[in-house]
Amino acid sequence: MKDPIIQLKGLTKLYGAQKAVDHLDLDIYKGEIFGLLGPNGAGKTTTILMMLGLTEPAGGSALVCGYNATRNPLEVKRKVGYMPDSVGFYDHMSAAENLQYIGRLNGIPEAQLKGRVAETLEIVGLTSDSHKPTAAFSRGMKQRLGLADVLLKQPEVIILDEPTLGIDPAGVKEFLTLIKQLSRQQGLTVLLSSHHLHHVQQVCDRVGIFVEGKLLAAGNLEKLAAQLFGKAGYITAVTLEEPVAKPEPLTDIVKNLDGVEQIDVHEHEIDITCSRDMTPDLVRYLVKEGCNITRVNQKNYGLEDIYQKYFESAN
Ligand SMILES: Nc1ncnc2c1ncn2[C@@H]1O[C@H](COP(=O)(O)OP(=O)(O)OP(=O)(O)O)[C@@H](O)[C@H]1O
């Protein structure tokens, strides 16, 4: 098993009597895109602030890139780029000037600065806008400039707090594609917080669902679906030319196949719920049994079903 690049153990934060974060245990591995998903007030920002050493936990620890974030916040800051939910720039300065200014604050040597700024602007797709004052930037462009700001110091981990807030759908897609490219091409570890499940779903390798300071579950979508729906996570819907008689030997035999959990017949359609993806096996089997298949549809549980289910059980 790989060593985690971020390791949270029993991490807890109190605001008065309120537990904003409640005994959080979480490992995040190098190169993965991890989504912290949860409604407003779930404790995502507070968790991020503790990982950065910007607020002190009441208990537990946050180990980030080998450093304890509470005891060594400066070392953590060197390794981790953080983009808060609203990024501010000097409006009258151009994108390139803003980045140069930030680069100097981060101690990037003057000889490397201009090259590094140009390179970073290229990565986030702002080269042709680099000389425009940021006052003229759309929210989507500002967000990409925010990402450039974070990437400038060549971090090992980037933490993005609600990065897609207020961006139009095309901008969101562009931004998330960029994140995925960065992670895959440069091995960058990305932690992204959001209450937009569709955004998280598009880009994250694993997701942690937060509610009221607690991590209710973490894993890839398949694992979450399996945890939530018991063993049954996949439905293959097969439509036949002829209506299916019920009960009949065909449905009984399919029901007994290894991995099939349930079978529902509605005239021409058979919905087969399985513990794994059995679509090719089922199609092969039904054809062999002489069925004339007109359509096959795979219905996997999406994050939306999972999210709904967690909130239903949390409330
Ligand atoms: N400085 C603070 N003082 C008191 N309570 C706070 C403070 N910061 C956060 N809280 C409370 O802690 C809880 C968790 O807040 P947090 O901002 O971490 O949630 P979040 O999941 O990031 O939500 P959002 O998306 O709204 O930022 C909330 O109930 C919030 O009101």
| Major sheet summary line | 6 strands, mixed
What is the overall pLDDT average? Answer: 88
Q: Label the CATH architecture of the largest domain.
A: 3-Layer(aba) Sandwich
The total beta strand count reads: 14
Strand content: 25-35%
- The shape is elongated
Please give the CATH class of the largest domain: Alpha Beta
Instruction: Kindly give the count of domains.
Output: 2
Could you walk me through the main structural features you see in this protein, from its secondary elements to its overall organization?
- The structure is a single chain.
- The chain folds into 2 domains: 4-87 and 152-226, P-loop containing nucleotide triphosphate hydrolases (Rossmann fold); 235-299, Alpha-Beta Plaits (2-Layer Sandwich).
- The model has no long low-confidence stretch (mean pLDDT 88).
- It is built from 11 helices and 14 strands.
- It is of the alpha/beta class and 315 residues long.
- Helices cover 37% and strands 29% of the residues.
- The two termini are 36 Å apart.
- The structure holds adenosine-5'-triphosphate.
- Adenosine-5'-triphosphate is lined by residues 15, 20, 38, 40-46, 195.
